[in-house]
Amino acid sequence: MKTGLNHLFIPGPTNVPDRVRMAMNVPMQDMRAPDFGELTLPLFAGLKKIYRTKSAEVFMLPGSGTGAWEAAITNTLNEGDTVLMSRFGQFSHLWVDMAERLGLNVQCVDVAWGEGVPVEKYAEILKADTDGKIKGVFATHNETATGVTSDIAGVRAALDSAGHDAMLYVDAVSSLGSIDFRMDDWGVDLAVSGSQKGLMLPAGLGILAASQKAIAASKTCTTKRCYFDFADMMNLNSGGYFPYTPPTQLFHGMRESLAMIEEEGLDNVLARHTRLAEGVRRAVEAWEGCSLCAVNPKWYSDTVSAIVVPETIDARDVISMGYSRYNTSFGSGLTKLAGKVFRIGHLGSLNEVMCIAAIGSAEMALADAGARIELGSGVAAAQAWYRDAAAQPIKMAAE
User: Fold this and answer.
1) Whole-model pTM above 0.85?
2) d(Cα 336, Cα 98) in Å, to the nearest integer?
3) How many domains are there within the chain?
4) 225 plus 344 within the same structural domain
5) Are residues 111 and 236 in the same domain?
6) Is 296 left (phi over 0), alpha (psi -120 to 50) or beta?
7) Are residues 173 and 207 in the same domain?
8) Pick from 144, 244, 248, 308: most CB atoms within 10 A?
């Protein structure tokens, strides 16, 4: 019989804070009541702050980030349209797969897993597309499978340098609310996310922000859609209502999670994620034979570290040992990384001591699986970093 807490260090769903769980413990209510908008309308406004947008429309869709992917495509692109995408991990691969299955003509740039969006290659392709055949440019901001974060501002710069009018689509599922995201500043047209990552909620809401350019495109798009139709949603969202049965309890939870982010200050939230991630990275550096899947510091993710184990070790054994012996869940290596990588998620409701626990459990699981690492080496490296960081002043929230 296991006692104590179940330690969850996967990159999503993330830990749900007690405040959020308690906020969701409410009776069911009338989703058509005259005062329902008092609950939902502030959520749309709060999400716009997280996206750092003033002009975009924000949608909350019952589903996951994958549903929001589909909504972004089917509302703004027609079958046969050419889009530019890149594939460098399981989730960027799945987005390519969806686009192809929805009938888009995908021009895909394959990149080594451990790198990110190839901005320079994008720039070259966009400059050569003088006829404007490319209608959409897709970028996965944070590739959860490999622990890689890409330069979205650089993709926007590539579009602008080429004078290209394609819309910019961004997967921000594992970055929104955890890694700096600036929808307006970066000229993002469709930004996809989900409730179960940096927003600290259970899975169940796909979240999508659409620029006014994207909204205009949705009015002339001929792709068939029903459940995810922008027009239907906007017609009722304006009053705080939905064209389908919404997950009301998640709305109560989101009200609390947005309040927590507001209290800490979004800039402080982002800085905390950077601080915690760096401690994990220093621990990995101290583990003999281990390394990050991200091949260069410019790709390092502040929400998840994908850790390559020594060749003689099966990462699945590390994950199994962590779960069965130490009540700790780590993320698995996906598809081509299965057995080679385990992942530590460090996003959402998290602090230094929780990260130390993850590192300590990972060290024991690695050793149990046969890795020749010095117990305590990663913990010590992270402790030194966290102690130094704790001595630095914390920036107060601007709002």
Assistant:
1) yes
2) 19
3) 2
4) no
5) yes
6) beta
7) yes
8) 144
